Amino acid sequence: MMASLKTPTLKTPSFALSSKPRLPSAFSAAFPNTARFSRSQPQRRRFLIVTASSSSFSNKPTVLVAEKLGEAGLTLLKEFANVDCSYNLSPEELCTKISLCDALIVRSGTKVNREVFESSGGRLKVVGRAGVGIDNVDLSAATEHGCLVVNAPTANTVAAAEHGIALLAAMARNVAQADASVKAGKWQRNKYVGVSLVGKTLAVLGFGKVGSEVARRAKGLGMHVIAHDPYAPADRARAIGVELVSFDEAIATADFISLHMPLTPATNKMLNDETFAKMKKSVRIVNVARGGVIDEEALVRALDAGTVAQAALDVFSEEPPKQDSKLVQHERVTVTPHLGASTMEAQEGVAIEIAEAVVGALKGELAATAVNAPMVPAEVLTELKPYVELAEKLGRLAVQLVAGGSGVKTVKVSYASSRAPDDLDTRLLRAMITKGIIEPISSVFVNLVNADYTAKQRGLRITEERILLDGSPESPLESIQVQIANVESKFASAMSESGEIKVEGRVKDGIPHLTKVGSFEVDVSLEGSIILCRQVDQPGMIGTVGSILGEENVNVSFMSVGRVAPRKHAVMAIGVDEQPSKETLKRIGEVPAIEEFVFLKL
Questions:
Q1: Global pTM?
Q2: Domains plus CATH for the chain?
Q3: How far apart are CA 104 and CA 126, in angstroms?
């Protein structure tokens, strides 16, 4: 049976008091500034004040830079955070330091394993990999601990592609071997006769950013380029004159093979005795991806047998490789010490890119380069940004309306949009609603990375519904509605006719607005604090409440009234910039026509 998500039980007024509401043992964070006000009136009159605030840094965050980073990146980091540059840390030293750090930046030489995340005590919020590959980071552990992992996938793309082409040409013309021979006082022109690239077939295995750039350059050298990548779109390959083929066809027909895939369980030792046996005799192999994708012992056997004529390697399964490595010492192997991204331009570019990603993540901004969260293109992030804010605030509003002791188990989210389902990815919005629901009543930090995992752990079921509207799909969403079922509400007017707490909102001019509470339509900007009042619909109510707030120097940013019928009942929603005092809220509650109210701080 799944555990339910419990909200705090409020026993004593705590607004402007030192007492705190008691929380269930599953949660350790306080639910601040929460109180209930009432007086001797009929049972229907209820006055409540509920607030919840997002976590924020009271001081500068600390970023641990565990491997050398370009000065431009360090400068960006130092403008926002305290930066600790500690290189060549042992695993034990890293685990000791990490509990004092909010972010960690590494290259490929530092292993960020589960022990590192456990040692952080929950403080580590982001790991930045200064480069593309992330096989040195335990993504599963990062996700479980709510730690975002970001990389820098674009800044070194050209550098890696150029190095791949450099190795390709150097291997084909025996440049490294001839250079060593001449420096040894020899002149062996006949020994180092090479092969031409023009007209030869190059198979690019892994047609991502680097692979596609290598293909472009190889086409310019007059090579016939084919590629294998199960995830690459065929139209992108065709656009640069590359044919996508099966893995077996690629390795069977290629004169040269260039590797550009990540190291995963599926690609580990992808080139082995079996695959070498399927290759064209005297094939030549370039690897600027990850050493682990090649079975290095099998490659030595293939070189000795003549199946593989030559290899050019920038990466190895163990770095640095052992000095007596048969592969490194092989006469027909050209090696470099992981120089794929090692140009001055790439180093600075990677430093800036990873620094910007880490700082943005620490600020709570959406990361387009997150690798353990849904990959969302930058243009989509920009378009969804106000809706992301709306989603989180609706979640926060909804959970604050749940009566103490009720278990939040079932949440339904409805998206109204004119766009087709395939054109609207709601994972980011669902994660932010989860964040808004869980964070105010727990000590857990929720983000896009661990939202689904955290919800599942707490027995919170979130279902989604899409309502297709007629009209122009220029805007991604018309509205978002959040419903919490099978709970009691602290504000009875927030209950829908079917018995769920229901809040709805939309984005207007880039600003999130609350547009519906229960069955009442309102219109209030979701900024600062909100006061919701259920009242008898009669003249002067707006002026009365506005005057009370004005007398206490509380600025009203927005006010809206929704009613079921004239002179019946209405809900007034008031946006305020400042947090009203206890006395001010009591005065509002004492207005005879007000039946109940709730104060919510976002």
A1: 0.57
A2: 62-151 (3.40.50.720), 155-335 (3.40.50.720), 377-518 (3.30.1330.90), 526-601 (3.30.70.260)
A3: 7
